[in-house]
């Protein structure tokens, strides 16, 4: 009982924090896996462990549609030009769907063990990473195979830069590398002390950030040099995102810690604590204008926090 109490306390986060302005409690059965804001910021897409996708209005949280293109946990989610949605699941099924017409435009079955997904807009390429260490590129929109690279260790995370021309890849052997759209290696970055669990490019594409156990790592992409930033998280920092201004970053914990922290990128100063989820965190994203933070968790909820409101932290109450 004592161990259970400690674990629940860890996931809850007992420091006073800003409560969510919206709490969608029935997001996805068994939990959320991915979140993606539409570029206009008026909608957010979510994905779950049972393969279902949903689209919600922002900031009201009205359910605009729910779709079942997948049967396995969704491991990749991104908006494409024209309001299309790109999604992929663990079985290797990659789908491009038209949400207005509620239909699949293109789909392609790749191999199982898909872990991550990215879209290189500048090259019109979809990129998928796999447990067996492969990175595969497919053309957009028809999803025909274009290239493949063997990295020798499980692909943990992918990220595309904002120009849509470079790809960052982290693997389970603690390596982080940059590739061009032809999967030619540009640079191997200085190795972090732990596996990079999620990667995000800064808005100006000069820096790369990664969440890891207890820390956030930052790389100067001109030199490949690394700096580590300690956090208030008590476990894995499973998801991160840059504020559009580039000077702040939001982080979400997972193991024993589902808390959210808004910190400065230059020194890690905590600017806001956001109330965490009941169970382990899965995904966090800024809205395109930087006003809202959205988070999703194994507790099946999606939460929205308004950063334009004055910061008035509260202790966790009975409605948490």
Descriptive labels:
disordered N terminus, 4-stranded antiparallel β-sheet, Quinoprotein_ADH-like_sf, Methylamine Dehydrogenase, Chain H, repeat, mainly beta
Please, could you describe this protein's structure?
With 320 residues, the chain is mostly beta strands. It has a single domain, classed as YVTN repeat-like/Quinoprotein amine dehydrogenase (Methylamine Dehydrogenase, Chain H). The protein is built from one helix and 28 strands.
Itemize the secondary structure elements and their pairings.
Elements: H1 2-12, E1 22-24, E2 32-37, E3 43-48, E4 53-57, E5 63-67, E6 74-79, E7 84-89, E8 93-98, E9 103-109, E10 114-120, E11 125-130, E12 134-139, E13 145-150, E14 155-160, E15 166-171, E16 176-180, E17 185-188, E18 198-201, E19 207-211, E20 215-220, E21 226-230, E22 237-242, E23 248-253, E24 260-264, E25 270-274, E26 281-286, E27 292-297, E28 302-306
Antiparallel strand pairs: 1-28, 2-3, 3-4, 4-5, 6-7, 7-8, 8-9, 10-11, 11-12, 12-13, 14-15, 15-16, 16-17, 18-19, 19-20, 20-21, 22-23, 23-24, 24-25, 26-27, 27-28
Strand order of the largest sheet: 1-28-27-26
Characterize the main sheet: 4 strands, antiparallel
Q: Any low-confidence stretches, pLDDT <50, length ≥5?
A: 1-12
**The CATH top-level class label:** Mainly Beta
**Name of the CATH homologous superfamily:** YVTN repeat-like/Quinoprotein amine dehydrogenase
Structural class: mainly beta
Distance between the termini: 21 Å
Query: Based on the structure given, which CATH architecture is correct?
Result: 7 Propeller
How many domains in all? 1
Helix coverage percent: under 10%
The general outline is globular
Task: Count helical runs.
Answer: 1
- Topology as a string of helices (H) and strands (E): HEEEEEEEEEEEEEEEEEEEEEEEEEEEE
CATH topology annotation: Methylamine Dehydrogenase, Chain H
Query: Quick one: how many beta strands?
Result: 28
Radius of gyration: 18 Å
